[in-house]
Every structure is written in structure tokens, then in C-alpha cells.
Amino acid sequence: MPESVYYFIQQLLNGLTVGSTYALIAIGYTMVYGIIGMINFAHGEVYMIGSYIAFAVLAALAMMGIDSVSLMLVSAFVISVIITSTYGFAIERVAYRPLRNSNRLIALISAIGMSIFLQNYVRLAQGSRDIAMPSLITGGWAFGPEDGFQATVSYMQLIIFVVTFVSMSALTLFISKSKMGKACRACAEDLGMTNLLGIDTNKVISLTFVIGAALAAVAGVLLGIYYGVINPYIGFMAGLKAFTAAVLGGIGSIPGAVLGGLILGVTEAFTAGYFSSEYKDVVAFSLLILILLFKPTGILGKPEVEKV
Amino acid sequence: MSECLLEASDLTMRFGGLLAVDQMSLKIMPGEIVSMIGPNGAGKTTVFNCLTGFYKATSGNIRFKGQSIEGLPGFKIARLGVIRTFQNVRLFKGMTALENLLVAQHRKLNTGLLAGLFKTPDFRKSEAEAIAKAEFWLEKVGLTEFANREAGNLAYGQQRRLEIARCMVTNPELLMLDEPAAGLNPNETAELDELISDLRRDHGVTVLLIEHDMKLVMDISDRIYVINQGRPLTSGTPDEVRNHPEVIKAYLGES
Fold first, then answer.
1. What is the DSSP letter of B212?
2. Which fold has domain A3-136+151-294?
3. Residue at a domain's end among B142, B170, B198
4. B133 and B14 in one domain?
5. Is B207 left (phi over 0), alpha (psi -120 to 50) or beta?
6. Contact criterion met (CB < 8 Å) for B78 and A185
7. Which pLDDT score, from 0 to 100, does residue B105 have?
8. CATH number at residue B20
9. pLDDT at residue B111 in the model
């Protein structure tokens, strides 16, 4: 096979890696929008907090002299997911629930305020410098010609694929089969009616925020280790990208968020690989504008029917 | 005289300058079928919304089985046994008919996340009961063969019946139907008439309904409240209401 094929495969792999983490974050946007019709603009910050907690856990374990990679990874995931979910829960209670019945714009402003608050809270606590994440997992498989361009799948990329796949399968099972999952779907279709059937919809809404935050934490741990650098501002761009992914796939639709994330990731990787990495954000957000212009409901979204 | 199932007194609902419900009082005895009639905009649906916690009444008292329920959130009132439908069909259209009936039993599937994850015997039992109950009601409203069809793809009359089934799986004591016959053809309305009488006879449910179909109302109701401009004009048995001069005036204009 010619070298260009391996180059293509490499870009595709890179794109799917980043895209799958966009998808994880985008699910949080899309689920919240699906149920209460608001964009949680603080969601990117939740992802950033997930990264910081992972860093804290890894640093603490290193200080205790623990160097088992699997133990470090598992504890980073578990602790980050638990604490970050608590943040998700608290954000909804503090910043959104009191405004539930007011104008949507007010909740949106509250979300932006929450985002600024969280960013600066982490900046004050941790400083605004870049923090290097320990590179836990190195190496990978290379394939291609011995003397030319070789495509590489790093072990970390593999972990990202596996963890993302497992998280999404678990979510899909939960939503389609479990009792709470059914309640989530019912709320997404008609919040008021669900409430009048005796379901505590506030609980369901809290759960949505917790699930979204947990998935963002998973993405935060994965991307933190993958990129190797975190700072208090990473949530802003990641949040915008995931939001773009959610809109691209059709906001409110979970499969749409996954599809949108993957398409966005791959588009970025190809732009960086074949054109210039400086332009990848330009292309990503141009995609958002095009979608909003020509298919505002996204790829898998349903046209909004005004609820009576 | 036995105790009221639902009693509202001096119920008032104001939207800014608009007085939608004006000191309305209402009593419903267990086992009754009571109708509310009145011209469009009379405030019937607003009364429904206040009674079920969908709106918070501006003032007034609402008691259900002697317990005060005004100001309670909708889901708590529903858990006490007051379930309603809306004028427009509000099924979960993307879910199957069966799933619609399972969601409504959410509370009774009283099993934690862990029990669901590991499918404990208790969980299986309560799940099987919920499905059995859903199937019973699907059969009752003649939708057994459509159990796995998405609710949004059912015919309109079927959707209406599925909504009533969804109310019934929650074991309500008071079923509140907002224009259940709207959009139904005469055959379907006759079936609805039979179904509602049947619900009371066999399942002991009390029914409060808003309806414009006078044939259905006169046929089925024990008592009728006539509401005009947010106020009760009169109430009584179908015969009393039919011959009441004020009602004739409100409905037909002065002759």
C-alpha cells in the first residue's frame, strides 16, 4: 500500500480518538437540552474539573509511592467521576433549578456565570499555569512500511476507544432498559405530563446532570492524560467543540451527539493533517455555522414542535 | 353522608389582570361521575390545572380525602391518587404503548438502581407485575395488538384510549379527563361512554370530566357543574341542569 494510505489511516485514528471524547462531553449537553431545553454552558468547565481531579488523584498516589498503572488509572476514573458528578448535581441545584420557570435567557446567563465562576475558582486554587499530567501510558503499535510513514495506534488511543465505547454502551442500556432511563425519556418528551403521572421530575433532572458530568469526567481523565497538559481554560474550547458536536448531530438526540462528536473529530484531524492545524478550529466552527444555516435540527434531530 | 373525595372552596386563579377562576367551589363524592361544562374560556381547564398542581391557585382551599393539597407539586398530588389527562393528547409519542404504561408505574417499581442492575428476585417480581398490569389495561382499551407500536403511530382514537389506560395503571382514586371525547367519532364516543362507566363500576374510580359533547355528559354524569366566566353558574343532576333557565341563557342566548 502506498504511504498516503497509512497517512490517511493515521489521521482517521487521531480524529476518532478526539471525536469520541467530544462525543462523551456532547452527551451531557444533549441530555440536559433534551429534558429542560437549556444549554448548560458550564458543562465544559465540568470536563476541566474532571481533568484536575484526575491530576490530583495521580499526584496523591505518586506521593504515596504507588506506581501500578492500572491502579492509578482506575482510581483516577472512579474518584474523578464521583467528585465531578457531585459538581454537576450542585451546579443544577444552585444555578439552574431556582430559575427553572423563568425565561430561558436568564438560565443561559446563569450558565455563563457559572462557567466563569468555575474557571476562576480552579484558577485561584490551582494557578493558571499549565500542569503536566504524568504520561501513564506510552507506546503503541506501528504499522506500515519500515522506511516510510508508519501509522501508529498508541495504547492510550486504544484505552480511549475502549472506555468511550463501554461508557456509551452502558448509557444506552440504562436509557433504553432501566426504570430511571424510561423516566428520562418520558421527561424528554413531556416534562409536565411525567410529573403529573407521579414521577419526581426534579430527581430525573438531577440525574441527567449527574450522568452528563460523569461522562464529562471520563472525557476529562482521558484527554488530560492523552494531551499531557491541563490548565483552567481547557474547558472553554472543549465545551464549545462538544456543543458544536451536539448541534451537528441534532441537539436532544444521544446517538446524534455521538455521531456529531465523531464527525467533528475526524473533520478536525483531516484539516490538521492535510491542510494546516492552525485552521482546524476555523473548520470546526464553520461546520457549526453551516449546520445552523442549512439544517438547524442537526443530522439526527427532530424538528422542534412547539409544546402547548 | 360520607366524606368528600375532593373539595375545593373559594378557588381563585388570577393571571395578571385576568380573573380566570373566581371563588369557585366544588365537591366530589367517592364513586361519582361529575362533569364540568361551560362555554370556551369559562375557566374549566384552569380549575383542572389548579386541582392537579399544574398551576398554583392564587387563593382558595383544596382538600383531597380531607388532606389539604394546594401548593403541593404535581407529582405528589398524583401520588395521592389524582391523575388527569389534557385536552390535547400527551402521550410519550416516541415510546411504545407498553412503555407508556410502564413509565406511569415508575413509582410502584420500587426498586433501587442496584436491584435493577442485578435483577434481584424482588425486582423481577415487581417488573413482572407491572407488565401484567400494563397488559391488562391494554386489553381493556383494546390495544393489545399494538403493545409494541410507538404511541405516536397509533390512530387518534387509540391514543385517547391509551391515555386513559396510562392513567388507570397508576391506581387513581380520582380520574380527571379534560375533553376526552374531543375529536372522536360518534362510535368512539359511545365506546368512551361505556369505558368510563366501566371504570367506575369495576375499578371504583371517581371521575371528574370536562366535556362539550352534551350527549355524553347528560348520559354519564351524576352531577354537572356549569361554569361561566370563572364562576359556577349552577350545579345539579343532568335533568336539573338541562332545564335551568340560566344555563339555557348562557348556552343559547336569550330568546
1. -
2. ABC transporter involved in vitamin B12 uptake, BtuC (1.10.3470)
3. B170
4. no
5. beta
6. no
7. 92
8. 3.40.50.300
9. 60
Could you tell me the residue range of the domain that residue B164 belongs to? 95-170
Q: What is the CA radius of gyration of chain B?
A: 19
- Nearest chain B Cα distance for residue A170, angstroms: 11
Residues of B within 8 A of A176 (CB-CB) are none
Q: What is the least distance, in Å, from the CA of A188 to any CA of chain B?
A: 9
Name the pTM for this structure.
Answer: 0.89
Tell me, yes or no, whether B21 and B130 share the same domain.
Answer: no
Q: Are B182 and B199 part of one and the same domain?
A: yes
Crossing angle of helices A201-227/A3-36, nearest 10°? Answer: 160
Q: Strand, helix or coil at A134? A: coil
| Number of domains forming the structure of chain B | 2
Q: Is A308 an 8 Å CB contact of chain B?
A: yes
> From residue B39, how far is each of A205, B8, B18, B209, B213 by CA, in Å?
38, 21, 17, 15, 12
Does residue A180 sit at the B interface (CB-CB below 8 Å)?
A: yes
Q: Is A291 left (phi over 0), alpha (psi -120 to 50) or beta?
A: alpha
- The count of CB pairs under 8 A between chains A and B is 72
Q: B170, B188, B214 — which closes off a domain? A: B170
How many other CB atoms sit within 10 Å of the CB of residue A103? 9
What are phi and psi for residue B232, nearest 5 degrees? -70, 125
For the segment B198-210, the average pLDDT, to the nearest whole number, is: 93
- Domain check: are B47 and B100 in the same one? no
Residue B77 and residue B193 in one domain: yes
Alpha carbon distance B138, A35 (integer Å): 28
- Is B87 contained in some domain? no
Supply the pLDDT for residue A223. Answer: 95
- B81-136 tens-digit pLDDT: 999 999 999 999 999 999 999 999 988 776 666 666 677 787 788 888 999 999 99
Q: Which amino acid is at A80?
A: S
Tell me what pLDDT residue B246 has.
Answer: 80
Contacts with A270 (C-beta within 8 Å, 6 or more apart), sequence order: A11, A15
Q: How much is the mean pLDDT over chain A?
A: 92
Contact of B104 with chain A, judged by CB distance below 8 Å, is answered with: yes
Question: Is residue B123 in some structural domain?
Answer: yes
**Same domain (yes/no): B99, B165:** yes
- Which is more confidently placed, B179 or A149? B179
Interface residue A197 vs chain B (CB under 8 A): yes
Residue B249 near chain A (CB below 8 Å)? no
In a domain, B164, yes or no: yes
